[in-house]
Amino acid sequence: MSDPSKPKLFRRILVANRGEIALRVIRTAQEMGIETVAVYSDADRTALHVRRADQAVALGGNKPSESYLDIQKVIDAARRTGCDALHPGYGFLSENEDLAEACKQAGVEFLGPPPHAITVMGDKVEARKCAMQAGVPLVPGLQEDVDAAHLVAAAKQVGYPVMLKAAAGGGGKGIRIVREERQLIEAFELARAEARSSFGDDRVYLEKFVTRPRHVEIQVMADKHGNCVSYGERECSVQRRHQKLVEESPCVALTPELRAAMSKAACDLAKSVGYVGAGTVEFLWSEGRFYFMEMNTRLQVEHPITEMRYGVDLVREQIRVGAGLPVSPVPEPRGHAIEVRVNAEDPDKYFPSLGTVSRINLPGGPGVRLDSAMFRGMEVTPFYDSMLAKLVVHGADREQAIARCLRALRELRIVGVTTSLSVAKRTLESAEFVAGDYDTGILDRIEKRAAPRDRELAMLAAAATRFLLAERAGATVEAAAGKGDQPPRWALLGRTERLRRTMP
Amino acid sequence: MSDPSKPKLFRRILVANRGEIALRVIRTAQEMGIETVAVYSDADRTALHVRRADQAVALGGNKPSESYLDIQKVIDAARRTGCDALHPGYGFLSENEDLAEACKQAGVEFLGPPPHAITVMGDKVEARKCAMQAGVPLVPGLQEDVDAAHLVAAAKQVGYPVMLKAAAGGGGKGIRIVREERQLIEAFELARAEARSSFGDDRVYLEKFVTRPRHVEIQVMADKHGNCVSYGERECSVQRRHQKLVEESPCVALTPELRAAMSKAACDLAKSVGYVGAGTVEFLWSEGRFYFMEMNTRLQVEHPITEMRYGVDLVREQIRVGAGLPVSPVPEPRGHAIEVRVNAEDPDKYFPSLGTVSRINLPGGPGVRLDSAMFRGMEVTPFYDSMLAKLVVHGADREQAIARCLRALRELRIVGVTTSLSVAKRTLESAEFVAGDYDTGILDRIEKRAAPRDRELAMLAAAATRFLLAERAGATVEAAAGKGDQPPRWALLGRTERLRRTMP
Amino acid sequence: MKYFVRLGDEERVIELQRHAGRLTARCGDVVHEVDLALVGDGGAFSLVVDGTSYDVVAEAQREQVVLQMVGERFVLHCEDERERAAHAVAGHKAGGKRELHAAMPGIVIDVRVKVGDAVEEGQTLVVLEAMKMQNPLTAEAAGKVTRVVCKVGEAVAGGAVLLELE
Amino acid sequence: MKYFVRLGDEERVIELQRHAGRLTARCGDVVHEVDLALVGDGGAFSLVVDGTSYDVVAEAQREQVVLQMVGERFVLHCEDERERAAHAVAGHKAGGKRELHAAMPGIVIDVRVKVGDAVEEGQTLVVLEAMKMQNPLTAEAAGKVTRVVCKVGEAVAGGAVLLELE
């Protein structure tokens, strides 16, 4: 629905992604009256982003390298369908300067920063140099690529515990913490292997592991006229295996002064590289101080908590600044927002859980938003990452937001795969989270088991479920005999009867 | 999730209702750490409000009069379960002064106004007298009960068209418009019959039918300390058979001055009857002037659009003021909100559509809220009203809200019963609605059929669907022969083959 | 395979053919490239016509197809050429008899006609109460009442015959 | 009917009985009044225990019951007395042989042991790549590798046997 008299910002946007983020972009584009083109792998023929886009182009193949990571195929699809803009989402090619460059060559507006900004920020070592020059504080460590020969000496110099990070990494992938020298070599090899297979670049760097750190990030949006605004922070310290699980905004640890300083640092850094579009500057917070970690040159998974607090649509802003409009004024934030990522995984082992989603009960009511490309009958395959949905809630204050999130978590049910829901629930219920005084280690301290009362109840419910199902199996026979209304007398049937006689 | 050190406002609330509004109340109570008790009829044993409440009490029977309308049963349930408060929802006993009185006797806080306010506002004739005294403008007409003997003369005096309204009515039930004298007697009898069966009170009154009126209502909240606040207006002119279908806030027709005047009139009226809790004062707006229609002494179906704009939880406020707290300060409203009611009905004839809900695809993403007690496998029965869900959206401005609502309407699918979704879609797309210059007659002017392009497409899709299903039926045979990967050659099977030969 | 598709008062002949895996639909002189895929658990389809994508929910019961797409709900009648041929033979025997059905389960509140009455199109014949609303059931065409099957106060099932007309 | 319910390392004996339509559950000395109703299309239940209501989603596959309720997911083993008796007869033959299974479909990235190796509890045996993550599969208990069934670079199905141990 758009005013036909108003010129559209773009005619058609190619969405170079899949899953919930592709759907997220499609939704906003539709609301702006802009057409969308979905691309898809063979495995994704019936995925929701394909069904909801205006056009769909098959890329072929199942592996990301044959489809969503193939720049040439993606650019060809954009050209063939007459797209004048491309949204990369997050992951896949979103932080690939070659795609940004290829878009430029093809005359397609890349809805992200210019190639140079991606190159600099995509390389952790370069990014740290850049931050240093912009006056942004850094964690102590080595900024160069580390090789196996100097590894042991370098780690000793920085002091254990140390972190190994993929230079080309992001989203927590390819990060290892090493607490003792004897673990160092194996961790390094694994980090390199993951870096190679995930990013095609096996450079790894090393830095000191900060104690009790919080992961706090600043959302920025820059336009092509040199303006850059900040939408405040997101607290993302609830992580397992360096993958975020629960995010909230605002962060209870920040004072207004610190928030202003971090926002300024983030905007300064963005401006220093000629940034355009949405970006996130990630900081470590520790004992009242903040240190630059990295800048993600794309929309972040957890952007909806910012949207709920500010009442803005960040994808809309991306599209607007991409079209050359100045950034919109930033509204006053309201209340508190929390996001829970719902992953298909065994919550005990953090193993992916594959299967078919056979039932979904979605939460609803006030202050609840669900971003998901999941549908009943969907296969969870090993080809892509395991996030099924993002549950986002907003409340007038933190207490209400936590209570609302727990309420919505109880309502949300997914059958067919195991999910991380129960871990999120126990995190939000934990005294540590409720107090707000937590750090990136919080998940290691969360109770792994359900409360004893709930466990007893579950055992009763399991027995009652089996009893009812047995009764109903019996009831079918009874109903055929016209006695369906009677309590089914299955005890009289067949060999069950024999056993029953032995009971008191 | 609530701070255990803080005293709870209530220990336990009985929710004397069913459907989405019962669930709505349960959700907020849970978020406040207050237990809830659901009551249910036999037909509702597995209804969502029963499953989501902390406790459940069977009232027995299927008809409302045997269950949700039986004051004694409801009060007994509250007593037996140790409830210290009762929320009546909307409809059923929500505007019954006897329930409010019975609660008082039982020492249970009725989360609504005192019995006297219900009595006065529940009687249209009394309410109009009261409004007149409070200085609120009225539509010309007769304020007394009309009987058949004086009907024809009275209608002639007021002048056609006239409206017949149930004195005890609400929610558009029991209202008839009469344009000519020859329709008057039949309409009067039907209005009386409906009034009797719906409200147990067959008094009907008559007033002039205002031309091109808009239905604009003001949400108020009053506490026990004499304070009354307004949360601005809701525009509810999109109605069929006097049942609202689409509501929005703000109303484009109001100037800030008029809004202030209407808010003041609404608060003055509420204060004049010693009002407590949430209430809605309904006005007719016509050519820049407003006239009092009635006051609904309960939470309104469409309250969520107010919640989304103001970032408040009106049920939470009801509970707070019921517990004796002063009303909270009213935040600044933000953006624009729209609600669409999704009814199980044939959109051409406005007939209820009964059946089993066999599939539900819910909308999601930014700015979308869904309030519903619907679930897959639910029976839509003739016992209760036909509303399945409320789709509520919020956007930064009206244009975005409309576009978002249309986007969400395309996403929402319900299979098993026919719904009013397509009427809402065509309303939101209509030039009249988009321009904002509409009145309560808008639905009569909405295009009844889908666009020609969409109709052609549907015919193609129907043929393709049948073709695919036939192919798959054939493919099963092929797959058994190990040729599943080949395009199924169903044309070679059986008698289909014979027919195929005759085709060009 | 040819399909005869009816939507309201319109009918189209649409011919679907698959060659070497590719599906085409011919509607008059226009040929569309069609890609239709069943989604997950069935009942939903991903339809791509000449590159344009539609999210379709479909219920097909023999020749009746109910579609939800582009924000609309369509109830279509769709027979293939085989079915059409069969119906052509079976047809030609529909008499002038019509029935008034209860559009939904409810309680009969009023019966406004009796056997032998002549009725006009649009005339209210029976009033049915369901979901707290009184719903007048009207004559679809002019005719004569030949039988009254329901009575006031009676609870009737959805689809039940209430009257017979000629 | 008596049920033997196991959740993790806990087991309860729960006896369910219906008399005159009322269902009771005895757990030790405590007797609960239970009302369990199947919801709509099955797979979900409304459970009321002594007046307290729970919204339960259940998947029951023979003796394994997976429940979602109170915001938690429980995987339980639940056998009735008849099944328990049958198992008691069939039991007593589980040997010392164990298998390492692929917890999910993926690609074998590394095999860290060979036949004859002694392994410790928690030792990484195989590294499996799935969903862009490298997942080390570890020994559940100390033992000896008797057979290696997978090789590096191989794509394996979920549940596939990778190694045999003793």
| Poorly predicted regions of chain A | 475-504
Strand percentage of chain C lies at: over 45%
Report the sheet-strand fraction of chain A. 15-25%
DSSP E strands of chain C, number: 16
Number of strands of chain A: 22
Greatest contact pair? A-D, 57 and 62 residues
Radius of gyration of chain C: 21 Å
Short description:
Chain A is α+β, with helices and mostly antiparallel strands and 504 residues long. Helices cover 36% and strands 23% of the residues of chain A.
Explain what this protein looks like in three dimensions.
- Chain A has 504 residues and is of the alpha+beta class.
- Chain A has 16 helices and 22 strands.
- In chain A, the strands form 6 sheets. Chain A has an 8-stranded antiparallel sheet, with helices on both faces.
- The N and C termini of chain A lie far apart (70 Å).
- Chain C is mainly beta.
- The longest helix of chain C has 10 residues, at 81-90.
- Chain C has 2 domains: 2-82, Glycoprotein, Type 4 Pilin; 94-165, RNA polymerase II/Efflux pump adaptor protein, barrel-sandwich hybrid domain (OB fold (Dihydrolipoamide Acetyltransferase, E2P), Beta Barrel).
- The model of chain C has no long low-confidence stretch (mean pLDDT 87).
- In chain C, a hairpin with a 2-residue loop joins strand 7 (64-69) and strand 8 (72-80).
- Chain C has one helix at residues 81-90, and strands at residues 2-7, 10-19, 22-27, 30-39, 44-49, 52-61, 64-69, 72-80, 98-101, 106-111, 118-119, 124-130, 133-138, 143-148, 155-156, 161-165.
- The chains are: A alpha+beta (504), C mainly beta (166).
How is the topology of this model organized?
The complex is a heterotetramer, with two copies of chain A (504 residues) and two copies of chain C (166 residues).
Chain A: E1 12-15, H1 19-31, E2 35-40, H2 48-52, E3 55-58, H3 71-80, E4 85-87, H4 97-106, E5 109-110, H5 115-122, H6 124-133, H7 148-158, E6 162-166, E7 175-178, H8 184-199, E8 204-208, E9 214-222, E10 228-240, E11 243-249, H9 256-272, E12 277-286, E13 289-296, H10 303-310, H11 314-322, E14 336-343, E15 345-346, E16 351-352, E17 355-356, E18 359-361, E19 368-372, E20 379-380, E21 387-395, H12 398-411, E22 413-415, H13 421-429, H14 431-435, H15 452-480, H16 494-501
Helix pairs in contact in A: 3-4, 4-5, 12-13
Chain C: E1 2-7, E2 10-19, E3 22-27, E4 30-39, E5 44-49, E6 52-61, E7 64-69, E8 72-80, H1 81-90, E9 98-101, E10 106-111, E11 118-119, E12 124-130, E13 133-138, E14 143-148, E15 155-156, E16 161-165
